[in-house]
Design brief:
235 residues; mainly beta; four-stranded mixed beta sheet; 12% helix
């Protein structure tokens, strides 16, 4: 999700009908600039190299979303033969949650998040919390710092708890729900759910997180990334 405001101008986007590295290319109606949907960057035209502001968003199922946001409005789109349902994620190894900051990129594969759905991580010098809800295949990222204090989280049942204050949190909203702690809110990060292959194509230097085990390192080394690059080049 992106903000449509660029250089004090609100742009109107549409599908260009073109693909770049098998990924959607957008076009704005005002300047006819072509934009990469995954990079959010102008690729050709008057606004080439301009960047769209990424807005934090959530890809989840309606059953999880509606109770938390009962006044939600819904965009009705034309019917197509393809339906976006939970079965879309039946092969979790194909998907990642990715973040980019200042030329750095990190991704958390869905198959690894199934093994460890609460990840207290670090990225670009900042404490990061990555959460995964298997039922709705929902992956989110938050800052772990609240009021200047770094928190560490763990899952107990359906709720999230931080070790420092003992407060409980809603894992889909990042809102503290323990009495007296409701003012605390985790800041969402502009993470993107993507096909693993597409993410690696656009961010080839990505560091991929892996769930720790006795025989798998917590962070893959350069050989792991090279292997992923080779696999992404196969048809």
């Amino acid at each position: 999700m992106y903000a449509r405001r660029v250089k004090d101008r609100t742009l109107t986007f549409s599908v260009s009908g073109m693909l770049w590295h098998r990924s959607l290319v957008m076009q704005d109606l005002e300047t006819k600039t072509l934009w990469s949907h995954l990079l959010g960057r102008g690729m050709r035209g008057p606004l080439k190299d301009e960047k769209l502001e990424v807005i934090p968003s959530v890809m989840t199922d309606w059953e999880s979303w509606l109770p938390r946001h009962p006044d939600t409005t819904v965009v009705t789109l034309p019917r197509t033969s393809a339906r976006y349902r939970r079965e879309f994620y039946r092969k979790p190894s194909r998907f990642v949650l990715g973040i980019t900051v200042g030329g750095l990129a990190r991704a958390w594969p869905f198959d690894q998040l199934l093994k460890q759905p609460v990840v207290n991580d670090q990225f670009a010098g900042e404490p990061v919390l990555v959460l995964f809800e298997p039922i709705g295949s929902t992956a989110l990222a938050f800052r772990r710092t609240v009021d200047g204090r770094e928190l560490h989280f763990e899952k107990r049942g359906d709720l999230l708890f931080d070790r420092e204050t003992g407060s409980s949190w809603d894992p889909l909203t990042g809102q503290a729900i323990t009495a007296g702690s409701q003012a605390m809110q985790l800041t969402p990060l502009p993470a993107v759910v993507s096909y693993r292959r597409a993410w690696l194509t656009f961010h080839p230097e990505t560091q991929f997180w892996q769930a720790p085990s006795s025989d798998v390192p917590a962070t893959p080394d350069a050989r792991d990334v090279d292997a992923l690059k080779k696999s992404s080049s196969k048809p």
